[in-house]
Amino acid sequence: MATDAFDRKFSILFDWFDRTEDGWLTHEDFEVMAGLFMAVAHPEDHENRAALREAFGRWWEILRAAGGTDEEGRVGRRPFIDLMRSHVTDPKTFEHVVLQIVDALMQALDTDRDGVLTTDEYVRMYEALHIPPETSGPAFQRLDLDGDGVISHAEFRKAIEEFYLSPDPDAPGNWLLGSPLGG
């Protein structure tokens, strides 16, 4: 069951990253994703923009170095899913790639620097990342674990960890990109 859950989540992620919609992930797709994430930050927010660019570059390099690319420098769906499971979710890699993205994104989104995301800040992220807007409200409610009307940095990090690491379809983080596990 857990294998199916991770396969579905990472397949959803593959589709989201496949900006050219050609069924392959390329360095260009990762650069476009980095650009989408960087656009959330203000142009003068060089620190978070650089952290996001570096993390996406590192993610692509992990896939490439692990032998995930074909002779044309592309990664197919199955190799992506397998490498997500074996390499990207490895604790050390996860911290230096995915959680670096989360931390920089949180800082970039938190425009009033109060340490939490309001509904408006959260919805702005969904719009910038081209995630269907009907997803943001339900996701926000599920991620606001303490029901205080905002998402703390800890709640945001926990949600991302759940999306990448938890097979539990009811885990709030599994709602980040839509209904749990694409169901």
TrEMBL record:
SMART domains: EFh. Gene3D superfamilies: EF-hand. InterPro entries: EF-hand-dom_pair, EF_Hand_1_Ca_BS, EF_hand_dom. Residues 97-132, 139-166 form the EF-hand domain. It comes from the Bacteria. It holds the Pfam family EF-hand_8. This is EF-hand domain-containing protein. It comes from Streptomyces chrestomyceticus.
